[in-house]
């Protein structure tokens, strides 16, 4: 079972010897780079040269690279994927292409297609071609209550790996107002993971059973009377009950980067010492 991290920092921050050393020391073996920017079409934040260099660094250190994009159900965006993404797949040597389906993949964003199903079918054709020509795994990540983490999924049903984001965090909003999640709330540690990953089981699959993975939070983990690493441990153990192929945390800025939380670092250092 792999431990992984979403990488959401500037390329210059990620591609250093120190960063890579800290990444490995905490037990991570997969890094998922947030390649583009949500809501701006296919607009990569990483250049071809940068993803090529990162791919080389990862391969030299036996680390798996994943490229994460924000799919949009727009004909212009999907045409861009078909034309522009192969260069990034080839340059990086990535093992997987992950689609992050959140507010970017909903009915109100439809342009040039009659339904989300029609748009997702167009993406599926492209992904199958990428799998054949670049040997990449098709991944989808989404949040707990999104349609893509349910029986209504139209994008996830073609995925080789599904990473639902079972994030138990202290601060949420309810009816547009800030809400402090109690420890024993349904959105608290342990319960949020069961709610999320039980829903993942309902995703219809057209190509056989997918590889299950779990997304967890490495931020906002401090509850009264409980240490941050305790909250992370409870969430982690709840995820392990689903026998995931991988557990991936959001995100690098909270673990290694400029917003790094000491409790997250302690948790991962402890986890690495046991493996």
Task: Give your account of this protein's structure.
With 275 residues, the protein is α/β, with parallel strands linked by helices. The protein is built from nine helices and ten strands. It has helices spanning 11-14, 17-25, 48-60, 75-92, 116-134, 191-200, 228-240, 252-255, 262-273, and strands spanning 2-7, 30-34, 64-69, 96-101, 137-143, 161-165, 171-174, 177-180, 211-217, 246-250. The strands form two sheets. Strands 1-2-3-4-5-6-9-10 form an eight-stranded parallel beta barrel, surrounded by four helices. A two-stranded antiparallel sheet has the order 7-8. The chain is globular and about 50 Å long. The termini are close together. The mean pLDDT is 95.
CATH level 4 superfamily: Glycosidases
- Text of the CATH class: Alpha Beta
**Spatial strand order of the main sheet:** 1-2-3-4-5-6-9-10
Q: How many DSSP E strands?
A: 10
What percentage of residues falls in helices of 4 or more residues?
Answer: 25-40%
Radius of gyration: 18 Å
Order of helices and strands: EHHEHEHEHEEEEHEHEHH
Beta percentage is: 15-25%
């Amino acid at each position: 079972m792999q431990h992984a991290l979403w990488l959401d920092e500037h390329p210059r921050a990620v591609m250093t010897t120190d960063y890579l050393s800290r990444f490995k020391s905490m037990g991570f073996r997969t890094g998922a780079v947030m390649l583009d920017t949500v809501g701006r079409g296919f607009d990569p934040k990483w250049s071809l040269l940068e993803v090529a260099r990162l791919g080389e660094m990862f391969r030299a250190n036996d680390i798996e690279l994943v490229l994460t994009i924000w799919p949009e159900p727009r004909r212009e965006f999907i045409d861009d994927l078909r034309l522009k993404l192969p260069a990034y797949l080839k340059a990086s040597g990535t093992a997987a292409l992950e689609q992050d389906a959140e507010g970017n993949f909903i009915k109100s964003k439809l342009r040039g297609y009659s339904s989300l199903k029609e748009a997702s079918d167009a993406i599926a054709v492209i992904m199958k071609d990428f799998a054949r020509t670049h040997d990449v795994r098709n991944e989808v990540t989404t949040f707990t209550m999104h349609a893509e983490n349910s029986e209504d999924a139209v994008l996830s049903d073609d995925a080789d790996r599904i990473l639902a984001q079972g994030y138990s965090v202290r601060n949420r909003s309810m009816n547009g107002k800030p809400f402090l999640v109690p420890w024993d709330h349904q959105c608290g540690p342990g319960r949020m993971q069961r709610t999320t990953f039980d829903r993942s089981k309902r995703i219809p699959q057209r190509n056989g059973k997918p590889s299950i993975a779990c997304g967890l939070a490495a931020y906002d983990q401090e509850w009264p009377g409980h240490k941050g690493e305790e909250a992370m441990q409870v969430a982690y153990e709840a995820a392990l009950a689903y026998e995931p192929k991988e557990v991936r945390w959001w995100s690098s800025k909270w673990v290694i980067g400029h917003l790094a939380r000491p409790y997250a670092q302690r948790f991962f250092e402890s986890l690495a010492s046991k493996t």
